[in-house]
Amino acid sequence: ESDIDGITKSVVKPYLSQNTNTGIFGRWRVQLQIYSLSGQDTSKWINRKLREIGEAPVIYSSELTNLSRLNIERLMKNKGYSNAVVEVDTTFKKKRATIVYKITGNEPYFIRSIKYETNLSELQPFVDADTSHISVKVGELFDADKLEEERQRMVKVLRNQGFYYFNKDHIYVEADTALNNHQVDLVFKFNPMTKVGENGEVKTVPHQRMKIRNVGYLPWYDNTLSLKEQAQDSLVCGKTTYYDSGKRKLCPKTVYMKTHIVPGKYFSEQMVERTYSNLNTLSVTRYVTINFTEVNDSLLDCYIALTPVKVQTFTIEV
């Protein structure tokens, strides 16, 4: 039971540590009935089989009930209801327990302001150019899931601009709720990149935009063989190399036209995803793997491996 719009049973259910037995329309518990047909003697084959097919009864646990309550409270805080109260009402009748979780939201927290602050000059122009597309808005509920969504979005924005090593650990959120008026000021901040030196010392370095130096294709890739065994011949066109394994032929132009990773251009996660999507449409490929190797602080080599489908298959179906 909840007094908050949008907080329904389906939202809360994944956070429950114990549930009822599964059933059709929530009533007819077929698997439980099958389990109940089994006898106590588990040495008999039929009893073991019935228990394997069926589902054991869910036994009430006060510890799991309390853990579910704590999980729901944590969920409500993530949704902006930091003062929410979750009470549990448990009744017992004929060896059956009925548990009711009563959620009282109280006054939630709303976002009053949003800022992006970075002292990293290499990121500043790209962050400033994209703040109009942020996924959290002033006046919305202080929802932790929405903040995580915004972090992921900003990571994708910067990786599309060539920052290959940028990840969500480089961006964090400070939330100031000390205003005592149920409003939150959000500040998104950025961490510099860390790198391990030759002597093992960890040091901070600026985020670097990475360009693609070379692109290599490995058609009919076999992970059980070394690159040297498979690359019997190669065709070089500019900064793109097509390695011939000596097996079935695949026209180089076919893979070139479906690749959006271009030598001389900055790394872009969007272009990698488009390349995956295009190459996976080829009927002759089973898997596509795209790997990047660091050449130096500003260059990457790209290798695209294509695992073929079987030439012929034979199956029997009923």
- Radius of gyration, in Å, reads 28 Å
Low-confidence stretches: none
Q: Judging from the principal axes of the Cα atoms, what is the shape?
A: flat
What is the string of SSEs from the N terminus onward?
Answer: HHHHEEEHHEEEEEHEEHHEE
Tally of individual helices: 9
State mean pLDDT (0 to 100 scale).
84
Distance between the termini: 48 Å
Q: What oligomeric state best describes the polypeptide chains here?
A: single chain
Main sheet summary: 5 strands, mixed
How are the strands ordered across the major sheet? 9-10-8-12-11
Q: Classify the beta-strand content into a percent band.
A: 25-35%
Structure overview:
With 318 residues, the protein is α/β, with parallel strands linked by helices. The protein is built from 9 helices and 12 strands. Strands 9-10-8-12-11 form a 5-stranded mixed sheet, covered by helices on one side. The model has no long low-confidence stretch (mean pLDDT 84).
Describe the structure concisely for a colleague.
Helix content is 25%, strand content 28%. By secondary structure, the chain is α/β, with parallel strands linked by helices.
Based on the model shown, name its key terms.
318 residues; alpha/beta; five-stranded mixed sheet; 12 strands
Blueprint of the fold:
Elements: H1 9-12, H2 30-36, H3 45-53, H4 62-78, E1 85-93, E2 96-104, E3 110-117, H5 124-128, H6 144-160, E4 171-176, E5 183-190, E6 193-196, E7 202-205, E8 211-218, H7 227-230, E9 233-237, E10 240-244, H8 252-257, H9 269-280, E11 285-296, E12 299-308
Parallel strand pairs: 3-5, 8-10, 8-12
Antiparallel strand pairs: 1-2, 4-5, 6-7, 9-10, 11-12
Helix pairs in contact: 2-3
